[in-house]
Amino acid sequence: MDANLAGFVALAALILGLFAWLRQDIRALRGEMHGLRDGMNGRIDALRDEMGELRERVARIEGLLEAVFMRRDLTPLPDPPAPEPPGKSEAA
Predict the structure, then answer these.
(1) C-alpha dist (Å) from residue 64 to 57, 75, 91
(2) Residue-wise pLDDT tens digits, 37-55
(3) Euclidean distance between CA atoms 69 and 61, whole angstroms
(4) Of 3, 7, 40, 92, which one has the fewest beta carbons inside 10 Å?
(5) What stretch of H or E contains 52?
(6) Is the pLDDT of residue 90 over 80?
(7) The Cα angle at residue 10 between residues 9 and 12, in degrees rounded to 5
(8) How far apart are CA 92 and CA 90, in angstroms?
(9) Quick one: which of 67, 85, 63, 84 has its CA closest to 75?
C-alpha cells in the first residue's frame, strides 16, 4: 500500500504543478491582452480624432459649397462676350 500512497502523492504533486503552470500562463496571457487592449484603445482614439477632424473639414466644405450655390443663384450670370465681326483677323 505504500506504493499506492506514493503514486497518489506523485500524482497530486504533478497536478498541483500543472495548475501552477496554468495559472502562470494565464497571468502572462492576461498581461499580453492588457497590452494589446491598451494599444487598440490608443489606435481607436487616434482614429476618432482623425474622424472628428474630417467631419469638421467636410462641414466646412459643405458650407462653402452652399455659399457658392446660393451666390450663384442670387447673382445674375454675366452677358456672354459679343461676337467679333466676320472680317476682322486675329493677326492684325
Answers:
(1) 11, 16, 43
(2) 999 999 999 999 999 999 9
(3) 12
(4) 92
(5) helix 2-74
(6) no
(7) 65
(8) 6
(9) 67
